[in-house]
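Weekly sync, protein design subgroup
Attendees: M.S., D.O., the rotation student, P.L. (late)

Item 1: inverse folding check
M.S. brought a backbone from last month's batch and wanted to see whether the design step gives back something sensible before we order anything. D.O. pointed out we never logged the input encoding, so this time it goes straight into the notes. Structure tokens as presented (337 positions):
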């Protein structure tokens, strides 16, 4: 197994005494030096390695193994939807932010789309408003919509921008209303769901100059229609539609599961790669169900609109973005068109 895979993807064929799992790479405070890398062994003990003390050949080997992946994605647009466990855990959040900044530094054009369900629920509860859901979608009345806008646009979005900037990137916080990035219409179930929107059009004109200047747009999944009415938009849907409009190379959905499983009851039956035809067959056979259905539909739709690949990846893994993009092991399921 290659050294880079050992660092990024956990157990390998290297000797047991040096087996590495789940690296936790901290953001570099001084780009001219390598910072400490914390890795967990299979017994969950934590070891601290310092790359600056590793043999020079080892460091060079790690970098050289990443070169083909860097060449493949450099200059390409990658849309990342952020949510789930990676948003709730402070450690995983730091991991995602570090990955974004690293990928941006090596030339990928990152667009970051986020929701913020747990944070919204927390504030609704503080204000004595009971969160309600229908078929996995938040029932959004006028009072809830006000809270959703304040939390996603005013709090979560700016917090993520601050974290990216602190880690050495340059982020710009936006929501779907800005520049009419998303123009929503009421959902088909508006009578039951309230102000939950579907995207009728996407305008990327405000985003392209930012992307071309290697800035990282951070976009909250809230948008207003022509009358100024705000709508809550599913973040997966927003990311998929945006990836299609930008002609993205890759769409990445961070989730709370390992990916798509051949057998829903067997966590070891992960499907690493599958095409659209195979996905449709799995859906017909009932192998994809529940909350995975809208995510898969989002991926399939984006592929049909020109996105090259779409991946549903395990956001519970540290540095899952690096695993998916800079190794051939991946961190979930990649769907091809």
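Designed sequence read out in the meeting:
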């Amino acid at each position: 197994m290659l050294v880079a895979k050992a660092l990024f993807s956990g157990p390998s064929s290297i000797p047991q005494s040096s087996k590495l799992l789940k690296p936790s790479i901290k953001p570099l405070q001084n780009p001219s030096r390598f910072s400490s890398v914390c890795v967990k062994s299979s017994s969950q003990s934590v070891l601290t390695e310092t790359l600056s003390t590793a043999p020079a050949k080892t460091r060079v080997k790690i970098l050289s193994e990443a070169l083909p992946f860097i060449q493949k994605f450099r200059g390409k647009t990658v849309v990342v939807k952020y949510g789930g466990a990676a948003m709730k855990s402070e450690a995983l959040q730091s991991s995602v932010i570090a990955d974004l900044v690293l990928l941006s530094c090596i030339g990928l054009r990152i667009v970051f789309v986020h929701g913020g369900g747990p944070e919204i629920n927390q504030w609704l509860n503080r204000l004595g408003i009971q969160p309600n859901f229908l078929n996995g979608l938040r029932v959004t009345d006028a009072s809830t919509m006000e809270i959703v806008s304040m939390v996603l646009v005013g709090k979560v979005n700016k917090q993520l921008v601050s974290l990216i900037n602190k880690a050495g990137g340059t982020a710009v916080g936006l929501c779907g209303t800005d520049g009419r990035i998303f123009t929503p219409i009421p959902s088909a179930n508006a009578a039951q769901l309230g102000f939950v929107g579907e995207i009728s059009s996407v305008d990327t004109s405000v985003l392209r100059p930012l992307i071309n200047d290697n800035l990282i747009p951070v976009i909250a999944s809230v948008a207003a229609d022509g009358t100024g009415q705000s709508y809550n938009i599913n973040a997966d849907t927003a990311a998929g539609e945006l990836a299609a409009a930008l002609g993205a190379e890759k769409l990445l959905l961070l989730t709370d599961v390992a990916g798509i499983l051949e057998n829903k009851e067997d966590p070891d039956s992960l499907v690493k790669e599958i095409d659209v035809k195979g996905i449709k067959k799995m859906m017909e056979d009932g192998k994809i169900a529940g909350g995975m259905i809208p995510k898969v539909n989002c991926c399939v739709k984006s592929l049909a609109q020109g996105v090259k690949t779409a991946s549903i990846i395990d956001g519970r893994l540290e540095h899952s973005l690096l695993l998916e993009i800079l190794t051939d092991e991946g961190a979930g399921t990649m769907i091809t068109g």
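Discussion: DSSP finds twelve helices and 17 strands in the chain. The radius of gyration is 20 Å.
Action: P.L. to compare against the previous round before Friday.
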